[in-house]
């Protein structure tokens, strides 16, 4: 199986979520199912069906997180330097709009554009890999062609 790259922060967040699901969410839903069973006829018991659905979601997420954590290769950005690679925090300026953006290149499980976490498999991240400060990057995105200049690269 292929290793899943994660930053230390991403690994910790996924591990914390797994602990929360196992120690808090799972026991709570089991109690809710037990309580709903006591109300009698399960075929018309909406509370029971909702609790079973939530249990199914929790169990699926636990399996998913255990799989990710089992295949995780944790990269510490503080030990890296040089051209852009996984875990780099990159400050870009859109050459058309002069809008500045900062992204950290992360693994798929921790990617969240709203938080500035850019999936390493995204077109922009793939275009940035190997580039240096001052370089210009052309990216074909679903929204069309974009040009960015790399202002700063940090490994934090």
UniProtKB/TrEMBL annotation:
Lineage top rank: taxon: Bacteria
Q: Which residues form the Transcription elongation factor GreA/GreB C-terminal domain?
A: 83-155
**Statement: the UniProt record of this protein carries the keyword Protein biosynthesis:** yes
Which stretches make up the Transcription elongation factor GreA/GreB N-terminal domain?
4-74
Q: Which InterPro entries match?
A: GreA/GreB_C_sf, TF_GreA/GreB_CS, Tscrpt_elong_fac_GreA, Tscrpt_elong_fac_GreA/B, Tscrpt_elong_fac_GreA/B_C, Tscrpt_elong_fac_GreA/B_fam, Tscrpt_elong_fac_GreA/B_N, Tscrpt_elong_fac_GreA/B_N_sf
Q: Has the keyword Transcription been applied to this entry?
A: yes
Protein keywords: DNA-binding, Elongation factor, Protein biosynthesis, Transcription, Transcription regulation
One molecular function GO term is: DNA binding
Q: Which Pfam families match?
A: GreA_GreB, GreA_GreB_N
Q: Name one GO biological process term.
A: regulation of DNA-templated transcription elongation
Job of this protein: Necessary for efficient RNA polymerase transcription elongation past template-encoded arresting sites. The arresting sites in DNA have the property of trapping a certain fraction of elongating RNA polymerases that pass through, resulting in locked ternary complexes. Cleavage of the nascent transcript by cleavage factors such as GreA or GreB allows the resumption of elongation from the new 3'terminus. GreA releases sequences of 2 to 3 nucleotides.
- Family statement: Belongs to the GreA/GreB family.
User: What protein does this entry describe?
Assistant: Transcription elongation factor GreA
Organism (species): Maritimibacter harenae
Q: What is the gene name?
A: greA
